Amino acid sequence: MGQEIESSHFRQKDFQRFQSRLRDETRLLGEWFDQGAFSDSDKVGGFELEVWLVDASGQPKAINEAYLKLTEANKLPVVAELAQFNVELNSEPRALHSDVLSRMQTELEDTWQQCSVLAKQLDTSLMMIGILPTVQEQQLTLPNMSDVKRFRALNEQVLRLRDGRPLMLNIEGQESLRLSHGDVMFESAATSYQLHLQVGLESAARVYNAAHILSAPMVAISANSPFLFGRNLWDETRIPLFEQAVALEDVRATDGRKISRVTFGAGYVESSVFECFQRNLDLYPVLLPATTDAPPQELAHLRLHNGTIWRWNRPLIGFDEKGEPHLRLEHRVVPSGPTVIDAIANAALFFGAIEVMANTKIPAETRLGFERAKANFYATAKDGLRADLVWLDGKKASVLELLQYQILPMAKQGLEALDVDKADIDLFLGVIEGRIKRQCNGAVWQRRYVAQHAADMTQLTQAYRERQQQGLPVHEWSV
Fold it and tell me: Under 8 Å CB-to-CB from 293, ≥6 apart: which residues?
């Protein structure tokens, strides 16, 4: 949802105009799907990394406006996030072959280094972690919201649809957390590492469905968000936090059904990812009715509306340098951190595994029902590497076994099929294998540290930051 808008206040006629243009653009997009009017340059990957700005004691520091002036002056690919203590680092899209993974690593390391140097000018440092252990509820307030109109508008519209009722947080994990909050700023406590995969029209539906199946093992291997406000909750607490932070549970879809704006989804697509955009039009009330004079071919209203529906696997429409539309999948389940090499390893696992799963002779989605894939996803969000899943053969197995004996070999096979360099495959999948063998991801390390040193969130944050700056993958961190 990177599009800025001109105003954060709307009238009824704004919703009517937006809905009309959304309807026209959805119809046009449907015609493009029927005509196959998409760029066929698939197998292109990239990422977005959301990070925290923190002070010397590891507390969130709400200075992204000043920080973004520095990064803009230095032409770095950094944009604002919801809170003033968050920013997002973006990558260049790259064809998935040859030394792509090491080039992604170099790019992220360079960006991270330059961004860190600039942060020091503001007595600040960067941290990549799903939920910052030191963040407090009283810091997640509107005065700390970034000065971006679409964020203000989002908050106003969510509260309007809730008739002003506060948002409720109720997470049952190893401990419990129940809170009410008067705005959407809880969302800013959850930071992600979003993987993008450009796909061709013919493969898009299979890729979309496969991404849902792979979401559970991806969450398990990458979980990095066990603590919120000092409570020990889910391994990937970011997932229920985000879902509840903008929850419209009492708001009905246009057909009367309950819907969620942050969602794993309602089912696989049957023949085309256009079904998602049709569902956007048919079921989801417009949140940000910011109309523009852009021609229908730019799909400005459709893309803005899609950006306010946070599917954990979200289809996107983009345009290449020639103005041709292309299809992308945004895989949103992976948290930020712990290190650059961990992040690229997560990308390697996903890009490799989905290459195989989306091209099996028997579609994986015919072997695992959607509700089971969904149950697997929440099981790993809650229990991480301790979870048991039902897999494609209908049998229950530990996620560690599935990662070791099925997902990891699948990723290796997929990266080889993409002609990725063997050295890259060995390096980055070796990081994944190390996590599996040591049964350690970011969430596990954080809990182990607390078990040994007591539940001091400032001490945990400082120890995490020290190890992150050393750059070793998380399974090699000392406790």
Answer: none
Residue (of 473, 463, 408, 466) closest to 440 by Cα position: 473
The tokens for 166 are 């506060």
Rounded to 5°, angle at Cα 341 from 340 and 346: 100
**Whether pTM exceeds 0.90:** yes
For 381-416, b/e burial (b = at least 16 CB within 10 A) is bbbbbebbbbbbeeeeeebbebbeebbbebbbebbe
Cα distance between residue 292 and residue 458, in whole Å = 46
pLDDT tens digits, one per residue of 63-81: 999 999 999 999 999 999 9
Q: For tokens 């932070």, name the residue.
A: 245
- Give every CB contact of residue 214 below 8 A, 6+ residues apart in sequence: 350, 353, 354, 357, 407
Match 């599917």 to its residue by tokens: 311
| Domains of the chain, earliest start first | 12-469 (3.30.590.20)
The residue among 368, 381, 377 whose CA lies nearest residue 215 is 377
329: left (phi over 0), alpha (psi -120 to 50) or beta: beta
Provide mean pLDDT across the span 325-333.
97
The separation between the first and the last C-alpha atoms of the chain, rounded to the nearest angstrom, is 38
327 closest CA partner among 144, 222, 204, 173: 204
Contact 125, 465 (CB under 8 A): yes
- At 421-474, the pLDDT tens digits run 999 999 999 999 999 999 999 999 999 999 999 889 999 999 999 999 999 999
| Coil, helix or strand at residue 6 | coil
Partners of 172 in beta bridges? 176
Which percentage of the chain shows pLDDT scores above 90?
89
| More reliable by pLDDT, 259 or 242 | 242
Please tell me whether residue 313 adopts helix, strand or coil conformation. strand
* 411/414 Cα distance (integer angstroms): 5
CA distance 97 to 253: 42
